[in-house]
Amino acid sequence: MTVTFAQGFEAAGVEAGISAVEGKKDLALVVNRGPLEVGAGVFTTNRFCAAPVQWSRKVVADGRVDAVILNSGGANACTGQAGYDQSAATAAKVAELLGTDPDRIAVCSTGLIGELLPLDKVLAGAEAAYAKIAADEDAGQDAAHAIMTTDTRPKTVERESEAGFRVGGMVKGSGMIAPQLATMLCVITTDAVVTAGQCQAALARGVDVTFNRIDVDGCMSTNDTVLLLASGASGVEPDPDEFNAMVADCCASLSRQIVGDGEGSSHTIRITVSGAVSVDAALACGRAVASSNLLKCAISGNDPNWGRIVSSLGIVPADVAPYDPDDVTVDVNGVRICDGGKPGVDRSEVDMTPREIDIDIDLNAGEAEATVWTDDLTHEYVHINADYES
Amino acid sequence: MTVTFAQGFEAAGVEAGISAVEGKKDLALVVNRGPLEVGAGVFTTNRFCAAPVQWSRKVVADGRVDAVILNSGGANACTGQAGYDQSAATAAKVAELLGTDPDRIAVCSTGLIGELLPLDKVLAGAEAAYAKIAADEDAGQDAAHAIMTTDTRPKTVERESEAGFRVGGMVKGSGMIAPQLATMLCVITTDAVVTAGQCQAALARGVDVTFNRIDVDGCMSTNDTVLLLASGASGVEPDPDEFNAMVADCCASLSRQIVGDGEGSSHTIRITVSGAVSVDAALACGRAVASSNLLKCAISGNDPNWGRIVSSLGIVPADVAPYDPDDVTVDVNGVRICDGGKPGVDRSEVDMTPREIDIDIDLNAGEAEATVWTDDLTHEYVHINADYES
Question: Catalytic residues (chains A, B) (predicted)?
């Protein structure tokens, strides 16, 4: 059901001819029919942020978003003033169709960096999408398909509270995925009666423990955008804690789907670091392990190579994560193969056949813990990224 | 000529049966016959440093090293007290053969982390190597072969000053290569008349601008060791600047050979960042680019994908490297494909056929520059590291 699961939203996904892939839907439109038109967003911190990010950051600043237009087939990043003008023109076209102001229209783009979009196709696509928008499931699925790039499947979520409000969403992303967002575009919608401040707070909290803790390849994108739109159409004012939890839960589901579809991956790797002096210390350790190409290759070869786990842990400075290497234990899929910094159970005892590989690291230095997710590194990842739009 | 190029050194490389590779030389011995027995070293900063690193760090602390014994086929890392005892026993055996103290014998190991060495084979190998040591070129080459792991060729260097002293060396390393050393063992020898303090200073300076600026896969090893031994056998007291320059030049040559033999690589990538406010800022930018898996895949596909260059630059925080994205230029193999943060010359103009790819980034923010080296990321890298000793 995706972005149309919550009441008050319409969507469409069409083939606008932007993508080089024949027959691929490449333009999505999500319209908030109200009665509220509340919006909030979290964006990439990359200093080379794309034109649509620069545009949309201004749009969400006042907390009102009437619609979002998203395209695959081109990132419109590193395109200078001409690129910014394209994002503005795209917003203006949607605003004209909706009878609203351009500064209430968010714009998202994904694809190759460094090339302008075929603007005439984008504008014609906006008209085609507007002509097709609907509130049904097919419309939401079309939108989710239209934002895909190297994704092998659409990624969507829906949740309904007992109090009667709904949250739904869609995301794209499978490469250039790093902590601190990812190469991803995400739109979450809700029909709860909430303010822009509530939305921004819920989104920031949710993103921090989900999208900011996944890492496919350590590469941060220029275009990452996560938007939360609220229509108020359910008439339900949610309990704040319940609302926050539902938004976070949607972010968690969508971020897990990204890792589960990481480019060319054969294993999803969950890394939990416990016994840390702080969550930041646990995160630093988890991210160091998650970014090890050597470990990710070993996992793709079904080798629970714990030497590559501890050698990655060892690069985290002691002032960031104090621990004694001689106290560290590492379990892979429940088998303690490193015990007190030394060999434990023989690694041949580890069953590496499941898709999900669980790495549990106990630093034995404190009470805090954190979990990060990544994928293994395969021949297929190299193939996709050596040959992608080259 | 390698470590035996300088007068006063003898070496050997033998097959001790430590490596799983049939017929491979896996144990090397380098003996300083004096009249000086000066030694200095630089070691990994990995907190899970291997037993031989713990041992050798103590050996070089007093500036005297009579010999170095090195093995491939096992890293003796994360092996606890038993591993440390193996390094100590290995040093004791060499000391016994030479008639000196164990605390004058440096020990280096490389291979799989987390397993003890077959100590009896190491000790027998030490005896066999001692029986064969010689000062000729073959002996030096045998030693260089014996320390190889996934290296496809031995890596050696020799330099002779007009003043009549010599510097030579050998290194191994092709994977788990990161800034801040690399998975590498390096022994450099000189017959100059120098103090341990001069050696330590020359080595620290040389390593900082060479071995610490290469990055094959961003993974820092537990075993990295660079040793400089001086025999004084030439009788020449070198000009300090010339000595420093020659040591740095040897480090540069050996580090370049590592990158040139990076696991499975098809391109060597030189990244020079100029126009930075400081060398540290330039280095931070260069390392961010060098660590991008996406860029490294693109290069392996002969795609000068500058979007992946600037998106990597963009993750460096502004307080680390101040610059304006709209001022940045990127040249690949001499073609300015990104000009002022926007597309420049069409990337189809770039000739990607050479082995070496030159990426020149000008931040236009200052006067400082720095160069780092890396390799592309290929199917072969994944194959080597998915299947290596699994």
Answer: 183
User: Is A286 in contact with A374 (CB distance < 8 Å)?
Assistant: no
pLDDT in tens, A302-358: 999 898 899 889 889 899 999 999 999 999 999 999 999 889 999 899 999 999 999
Residue A315 sits in which domain range? 268-387
B310 touches chain A (CB under 8 A): yes
Chain B (5-24) residues lying within 8 Å, Cβ to Cβ, of chain A = none
Q: Are A168 and A6 in contact (CB under 8 A)?
A: yes
For the segment A148-197, what is each residue's pLDDT rounded down to a tens digit? 988 889 999 999 999 999 999 999 987 655 544 446 899 999 999 999 99
Residue A385 marked as a ligand binder? yes
Name the residue facing B301 among A217, A379, A387 (closest C-beta): A387
At A39, list the tokens: 């919006």
pLDDT at B177: 58
Could you say which residues from 54 to 83 on chain A have a Cβ atom under 8 Å away from some Cβ of chain B? 75, 77-80, 82
Q: Which of A4, A44, A110, A183 is catalytic?
A: A183
B47, B341, B386 ranked by CB distance to A314: nearest: B47
Q: Half-sphere exposure of B57 toward its Cβ, with a 13 Å CA cutoff?
A: 13
One domain, residues B111 and B132:
yes
Comparing A257-271, A336-350, B51-65, B274-288, the range with the smallest average pLDDT is A257-271
Identify the CATH number of the domain in which residue A48 sits: 3.60.70.12
Q: Which of A216, A233, A260 is the last residue of a domain?
A: A260
Task: Identify all chain A residues contacting B298, using CB atoms and an 8 Å cutoff.
Answer: 385-386, 388, 390
CA–CA dist A138, A146 (Å, integer): 12
